Amino acid sequence: METPIVARLLPVLLPVLLLVTLGATGAAAMGVRSEPGGAGGAPAETDVVPGEVLVQFRDDVRPDARDALLSRLGLRVKASLGGQNAYVVSILDGSSVAAAIARLRAEPEVVSAEPNRIIRLQPPIFPQPPPARS
Question: If we measure between CA atoms, which residue out of 86, 115, 81, 78 comes closest to residue 13?
Fold first, then answer.
């Protein structure tokens, strides 16, 4: 079984995600919405980029076959994730992220399909210096 795409791409994407997170004034400024997705029915919410999915195809899938498959599913490549046959894919037909992922995962050419999650890092907490003694 192959490593999930997010685990392999995290070292590459983390600096970009950090810049995006620090540069935005809030989720509304980034056009982000939250979709419920906690494990076991937990109320946790995960921020995802609406209308986008991360997809990795098998190594033997050619670009023309990839594009034909995506077109048939109402999707289109938005950006390459720098090798490993992985891409940010736009949803063109108005379906939900979950529906697009389900359609992609049903295809034998697809290794992995996941939401394009926005990872928010908490700023570091620095201890306050002790008060000066007089």
Answer: 81
Q: Are strands 45-57 and 110-117 parallel, antiparallel or unpaired?
A: antiparallel
User: Rounded to an integer, what is the distance from CA 55 to the centroid of its chain?
Assistant: 9
Residues 52 and 42: their CA atoms lie apart, in Å, by 24
Kindly write down the DSSP assignment for every residue of 33-92, as one continuous string.
Answer: EEEE--GGG---EEEEEEEEEEEEE-TT--HHHHHHHHHHTTEEEEEE-SSTTEEEEEE-
Q: How remote is the C-alpha of 118 from its chain's centroid?
A: 6
pTM over 0.70: no
Of 109 and 3, more confident? 109
**pLDDT tens track for 96-132:** 999 999 999 999 999 999 999 988 787 777 777 788 8
Q: Is residue 79 part of a domain?
A: yes
**42 in any annotated domain:** no
* CA-wise closest residue to 88 among 35, 17, 18, 19: 17
Q: For position 102, which CATH number holds?
A: 3.30.70.80
> For residues 47 and 117, what is the distance between their CA atoms, to the nearest angstrom?
6
